[in-house]
Design a protein that fits this description.
By secondary structure, this protein is an alpha/beta fold. The protein is built from ten helices and six strands; from the N terminus they run E-H-E-H-E-H-E-H-E-H-E-H-H-H-H-H. It has helices at about 15-25, 40-50, 65-75, 90-100, 115-125, 130-145, 155-165, 170-175, 180-195, 200-210, and strands spanning about 5-10, 30-40, 55-60, 80-85, 105-110, 130. It has a six-stranded parallel beta sheet, sandwiched between helices. Helix 2 runs parallel beside helix 3 (about 65-75), helix 7 (about 155-165) packs across helix 9 and helix 8 (about 170-175) packs across helix 9 (about 180-195).
Length: about 210
């Protein structure tokens, strides 16, 4: 009779109750062994180096140092451990940096027990694991052009050129034979595409990227 090899874990979370709960959950299930715990990003990096776990269960927002920074450092060091993010946050500002830093998977803390066990096994094998909500966000991010990558339309370029000359919205509308509301709409699109917050920033970004002059 063959037994599955043990998957060793490092649990990283700033809440002791969460760490205790996860430890109890995994230690009561066959095939897992918790090697240790950490309460911050920097401590996670240190403990991972000491314990060499198969999988690091990583929270993201911790007062003592973020999980993303820890993931990035583990990746830089070439750590053997696979990092599976386990957090309550699924916003773009959390998910994308974590994946880009090198996380193998990303789950939310409301994931069912069996789903978490399956995710840890998959992560240990190097397979990517994403909660449905996170997967949807990543697909949307890939499909949405980053600021500066989406080309400006001919009309947007005309508006931008006039803005660079210091022309007011009313004057732009009169010169291009469009309404002021339409001018404002073009400006909104320009700001989004150039990653700018106002007229001055849009003009500066356009010159910097060679769109103007």
């Amino acid at each position: 009779m063959t037994t599955e090899p043990l998957i060793t874990l490092l649990i990283v979370d700033d809440h002791p109750v969460v760490r205790d709960g996860l430890r109890g959950m995994f230690e009561s299930a066959p095939g897992f062994r918790v090697l240790g715990e950490a309460a911050s990003g920097p401590e996670a990096v240190t403990r991972a180096a000491e314990l060499d776990p198969d999988v690091v269960l990583m929270d993201l927002r911790m007062p003592g140092g973020s999980g993303v920074a820890a993931i990035r450092e583990l990746t830089r060091r070439g750590a053997r451990a696979k990092v599976l993010v386990l957090t309550t946050y699924d916003t773009d500002s959390d998910t994308l940096p974590a994946i880009e830093a090198g996380a193998t998977g990303y789950l939310l803390k409301d994931a069912p027990r069996d789903e978490l066990f399956t995710a840890v096994r998959a992560a240990a094998e190097g397979r990517t694991v994403l909660s449905p909500a996170v997967a949807s966000r990543l697909v949307r991010a890939v499909r949405t052009p980053a600021p500066g990558n989406e080309p400006l339309s001919t009309r947007e370029r005309e508006v931008l050129t006039l803005v660079a000359r210091g022309t007011s919205n009313r004057e732009i509308a009169r010169e291009l034979f469009i309404s002021e509301a339409t001018v404002k709409t073009h400006l909104t699109h320009l700001y989004t595409k150039l990653g700018a917050k106002d007229r001055a920033a849009a003009v500066a970004a356009a010159y910097d990227r060679g769109i103007l002059g």
